[in-house]
């Protein structure tokens, strides 16, 4: 795969104008107020597991419209005081899987919450457990155009709300320090983390890894890769709804959340990535309202840095925690 996007010096300066609806803040305030009107106390049940150094808990919390959403909570065995927590959102098509598949954060001393993505979990991995009860109008296969006729009905309104509500739920758990919560994810999960960063105050950090759902207009016009191609397919059939489609997407574009982010971030991108083109990642990073570092993998595609990036994330978080500790001392 050859490079197809801007050069690295051009990416560093790329800060495009991205459409933002006038009622963006009002839309999300209303959405979250409606969701928070439902009882929020999560149900947490210890799960028997062959793991001896990590405790596994099955969590059910209240998401969009009061609907139940599933998550795993992994804790270092024997932990007694509230821990910093990493909340992870998942890549497109995957579910929360099995708890033993993601041990690195709990093995490093963090509480680790892994959110199921409603309606997904059958594209790869070991499955998901959360349905999406909402109906949809005409859409192309996949999730990108479900309910795209209106921001109120769009699929990612429900997903982003679930993600915020998991932060709310995490802050009520005795095992977690509510002042030390980090959100992260790869691809779709990175895009969800960006949205949460723009909707939730008081996060310790944000770790979007090759994030999806950024700068929609450029992504759709630049790459022929899926999932962005789902939007192309939809518009190739519904030729007269282009303006409305992009208006809906503007409520969910990572760039618009970046402008509202209050926590520092560590991004990653790969210069051969045709799934989430690097210019779309830089568009969000360069609009980030506070500090935002980025790791660049010049010769990788959408896999990005994988384990190498996790090592960088762990070091970045350790530095954040030591800085916060020194400040509070």
Q: Helix count?
A: 11
Describe the largest sheet: 9 strands, mixed
Helix content: 25-40%
Shape, per Cα inertia axes: globular
How many domains? The number is: 1
Global Rg: 19 Å
CATH topology: Rossmann fold
What structural class do you assign from the helix and strand content?
alpha/beta
Return the string of H and E elements: HHEEEEHEHEHEHHHHEHEH
Unreliable stretches covering 5 or more consecutive residues: none
Look at the structure and name the CATH superfamily: Alpha/Beta hydrolase fold, catalytic domain
Percentage of residues in strands: 15-25%
CA-CA gap between termini: 50 Å
Task: Please provide the count of β strands.
Answer: 9
Mean pLDDT, rounded to whole units? 95
CATH-derived architecture: 3-Layer(aba) Sandwich
- Biggest sheet strand order reads 1-2-3-5-4-6-7-8-9
The top level CATH class name: Alpha Beta
Keywords:
35% helix, single chain, Rossmann fold, 329 residues, alpha/beta, 9 strands, 9-stranded mixed sheet
Chain-wise SSE layout:
Elements lengths: L7 H6 L10 H13 L6 E5 L6 E9 L5 E9 L6 E7 L14 H4 L3 E5 L39 H16 L5 E11 L1 H12 L5 E5 L6 H7 L5 H10 L4 H9 L3 H5 L6 E6 L7 H10 L4 E6 L9 H22 L1
Parallel strand pairs: 4-5, 4-6, 6-7, 7-8, 8-9
Antiparallel strand pairs: 1-2, 2-3, 3-5
Protein name: Acetylxylan esterase
Pfam families: AXE1 (PF05448)
GO molecular function, one term: carboxylic ester hydrolase activity
């Amino acid at each position: 795969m050859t490079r197809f996007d801007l050069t690295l010096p051009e990416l560093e300066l790329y800060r495009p104008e991205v459409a933002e609806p006038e009622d963006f803040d009002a839309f999300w305030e209303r959405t979250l107020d409606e969701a928070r009107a439902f009882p929020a106390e999560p149900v947490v049940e210890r799960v028997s597991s062959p793991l001896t150094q990590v405790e596994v808990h099955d969590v059910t919390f209240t998401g969009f419209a009061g609907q139940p959403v599933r998550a795993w909570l992994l804790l270092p065995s024997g932990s007694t005081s509230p821990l910093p927590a990493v909340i992870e959102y998942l890549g497109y098509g995957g579910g929360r899987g099995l708890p033993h598949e993601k041990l690195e954060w709990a093995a490093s001393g963090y509480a680790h919450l892994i959110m199921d993505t409603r309606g997904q979990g059958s594209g790869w991995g070991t499955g998901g457990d959360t349905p999406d009860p909402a109906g949809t109008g005409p859409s192309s296969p996949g999730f990108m155009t479900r309910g795209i006729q209106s921001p109120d009905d769009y699929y990612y309104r429900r997903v982003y709300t679930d993600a915020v509500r998991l932060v709310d739920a995490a802050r009520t758990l005795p095992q977690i320090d509510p002042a030390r919560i980090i959100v992260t994810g790869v691809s779709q999960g990175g895009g969800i983390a960006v949205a949460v960063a723009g909707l939730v105050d008081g996060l310790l950090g944000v770790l979007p890894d090759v994030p999806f759902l950024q700068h929609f207009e450029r992504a759709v016009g630049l790459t022929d890769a899926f999932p962005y191609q789902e939007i192309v397919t939809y518009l190739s059939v519904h030729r007269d709804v282009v303006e409305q489609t992009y208006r809906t997407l503007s409520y969910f574009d990572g760039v618009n959340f970046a402008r509202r982010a209050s926590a520092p971030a560590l991004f990653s991108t790969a210069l051969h990535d045709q799934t989430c083109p690097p210019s779309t990642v830089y568009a969000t990073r360069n609009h980030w309202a506070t500090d935002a570092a980025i790791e660049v993998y010049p010769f990788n595609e959408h896999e990005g840095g994988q384990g190498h990036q996790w090592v960088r994330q762990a070091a970045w978080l350790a530095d954040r925690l030591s800085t916060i500790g020194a400040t509070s001392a």
